[in-house]
Amino acid sequence: MTPIVSFIIPVRNSAEMLERCLRSIAANDYPRECLEIVVADNGSTDRSREVADAAGAIVLTLPGLRVGELRNRAAHAARGEVLAFIDADHEIRPEWARVAVDALAEPGVRAAGALCHSPVPGTWVQRQYDALRGHPRGRRDVEWLGSGNLGVRRDAFETLGGFDTGLDTCEDVDLCARLRAAGYRLVSDDRLYNTHFGDASTLRELFVGELWRGRDNARVTLRSPLSFRSIVSLLIPVVDLLLIAAGALGLIAWSGPFAIAIVLASIAGVIALAALRAWRKAGTRGLTLLTACQRLAVAAVYDVGRALALVARAGHTVRHSRPAES
Questions:
Q1: Less packed terminus of the chain by CB within 10 Å, N or C?
Q2: 276-318 tens-digit pLDDT
Q3: Checking DSSP bridges between strand 58-61 and strand 139-141, what pairing results, if any?
Q4: Percentages helix, strand, coil for the chain, rounded to the nearest 5?
Q5: Residue 194 · residue 149 · CB < 8 Å
Q6: Are both 131 and 208 inside the same structural domain?
Q7: Longest dimension (CA), the chain
Q8: CA dihedral 290, 202, 310, 116 (to 10 degrees)
Q9: Bond prior to 63 in cis (omega within 30° of 0)
């Protein structure tokens, strides 16, 4: 029997993006009777609910909840054997449901997805951030998948208790770690292609976003057994923070050439770490001097945001206070 795929979409005041997301789901080449959509509306004051109703979705009104709780409530209301977590600012391709069901039928696989892509053409920040993500080809086992483009088998999701509702963000990192700890496989499949229209379009947006995510990322990483990837994820912001502190102390406590040397060494250290991460993630193929500088700037702002998140954090309201895009 063809399994039911339940698309679960949290939304708040994103009517236009939600409409695009729902159109992409409706275009899936999967039996219509085996698809359902559950929209968890987090107190929208725009047309989001009307858009969801028009698409035939089940709409839950759940104001004031964290995104993990929104997804858990929607999953509980859904019928599907496959829970497809797609965020409202994502767009998927017509083969998504079929490929996800196929991937989740592999032995031991309980989660499938793929890293998202920035919109095309996008800003230079989005293009370089997308390059830093890296995009694994084919189908392969991975340690982590993002919750904006994620298919999970219901049995595993319920066994583990769903997303951690105590987290503001990085709930996907936590869920993936618990899935791996339970002995399940996670696979990335590049046919689960999705475009994320919510990618930061400026360096400021990137910085504030990482300032918001950084602390929960460190908390969640420390919960589970450390791997090479997680150790690097923890060490880079810590080292960056020490370098930033050294530079600040150099300016405050000393004067003259010694202070200048400390500040310059600190800046060089942060840039070197950012460059190391940028080249390791994206390589140097096709780089020009301009794109190399752009990539380095994006990597440095990302790393500094993650570092400062260890001691200061932007709230969710600050993160979403950017002006409307033209």
A1: C
A2: 666 666 666 777 889 888 888 888 888 888 888 887 766 554 4
A3: unpaired
A4: 50, 15, 35
A5: yes
A6: no
A7: 76
A8: -90
A9: no
Per the listing, tokens 């999967």 go with: 30
Share of the chain above pLDDT 90, in %: 58
Of residues 115 and 216, more confidence is placed in 115
Mean pLDDT confidence for 61-84: 95
Judgement on whether residues 181 and 266 belong to the same structural domain of the protein: no
* Site of tokens 């904006």: 148
How far does CA 117 lie from the centroid of its chain? 11
Residue pLDDT, tens place only, 210-245:
888 877 777 777 676 666 666 666 777 777 777 777
What would the two tokens of residue 54 be?
């028009």
Structure tokens of 3? 């399994």
Structure tokens at 303: 């790393």
DSSP 3-state assignment of 79? coil
pLDDT, position 263: 64
pLDDT greater at residue 76 or residue 285:
76
Place of tokens 């993002």: 146
Tokens coding 168? 């503001």
Domain region containing 282: 203-319
Residue 321 is predicted with a pLDDT of 37
Identify the residue whose tokens are 């029997």.
1
Name the pTM for this structure.
0.84
Single out the residue in 146, 178, 196 at which a domain terminates: 196
CATH number at residue 134: 3.90.550.10
pLDDT at res. 319: 45
Output the CA angle 88-93-97, nearest 5 degrees: 85
Residue where one domain finishes, among candidates 161, 196, 231 = 196
Q: Examine the domain organization and report whether 89 and 234 are in the same domain.
A: no
